[in-house]
Design a protein that fits this description.
5 helices
């Protein structure tokens, strides 16, 4: 898959992206909001990329794609669709700290959700984040997601204060 927006390219992962994936995973926001996506070493990132690459073409596992800038091909983060229980799917995304506040996450999510919903045959996509992740909540809102729950729920295997929204397609 290759998806282009005005400023971004969303492409499939390749093993040579491991160094950038590792570096992008180490920022404070990743540690705080998605600690299971922090890679201690480049080799850990490479193994994760190999797993994600093996999911392409399947319909039962995460569908993750790096986000690159069109201007210079810099890997600045990722967007993904992750299966939830009951046949539902969740959007996930992260933009590296040096690139936040520029609208990249919103641009990527706006382009990615309809494309992946069509590919996966979805009529709705969920957005789940920690309740205090205001930046992520704003991205979801700008991309047409509507709030459906706010309170204590399961987040990466722990009971946390979460925010859940849905976009119906």
């Amino acid at each position: 898959m290759k998806l282009e927006t005005e400023r971004l390219c969303i492409v499939e992962f390749a093993p040579e992206m491991a160094r950038d994936v590792h570096a992008n995973s180490l920022d404070a926001d990743t540690r705080r909001f998605v600690p299971d996506e922090v890679f201690a070493t480049v080799e850990d990132a490479r193994r994760a990329i190999e797993f994600l690459m093996a999911q392409y073409g399947r319909m039962d596992g995460p569908q993750a794609y790096p986000v690159l800038t069109k201007a210079d091909g810099k890997n600045i983060g990722y967007v993904q669709m992750v299966p939830l229980e009951g046949g539902r799917w969740e959007i996930g995304y992260h933009i590296a700290r040096n690139y936040v506040g520029k609208g990249y996450a919103t641009e990527a999510v706006r382009a990615f959700v309809p494309k992946m919903a069509e590919k996966l045959g979805l009529r709705e996509v969920y957005g789940v984040c920690l309740r205090d992740n205001l930046a992520s909540r704003r991205v979801l809102e700008k991309c047409g997601f509507e709030p459906v729950f706010e309170g204590v729920g399961d987040y990466q295997g722990q009971k946390r204060e979460i925010f859940v929204s849905v976009r119906r397609l």
